[in-house]
Amino acid sequence: MALTRNKIIGFSIVSILFVLLISLLAYGLATRSSVTGQSGVNLVGKPAPEFEFITFDGNNFKLRDYIGKPIVVNFWASWCSPCREEAEILEESFVKLNPLVVFVGVNIQDTASDAEEFINEFGLNYINGPDKTGSITIDYGVIGLPVTFFIDNNGIIVNRWVGILTENTLSELIYEANDNLGQN
Asked: 36-177 adopts what CATH topology?
């Protein structure tokens, strides 16, 4: 069967389009970022959304009452393995920097008993409370866990970290956000 010139041109065009489609698909897959990594990205440089809750030890917490000090807000859950890995690091940093820096844990998608067990297991002494309605999670754009926000003395979110915090990363982000803290 002899190929006509039109068939050769048609086959060439289809082949080129196919290669172009595969190339675009490969580029898209190679350059995409995870949805979790986008948690709160639009809030950096903006005022921290106000929130309040009743802490697990029964006290009222309002974020606005702590503006004027650097604040670390960590979203966590007892069932989150990375949250478990960073819990001791957060507590150690709290002990080291209290009262210069305020640490706040926001527990999401958890039962009160599981959250309290987590707090007791890791000996967490900083402020922790539940996001019972999910509104805090929505206001902060949290998609996955853990996510930590760094708020400066003026109430502006200056940075955020998605994933497990190491001691060095936590210290660097706190000090970057708050020039008036002397590094130890």
From this structure: Glutaredoxin (3.40.30)
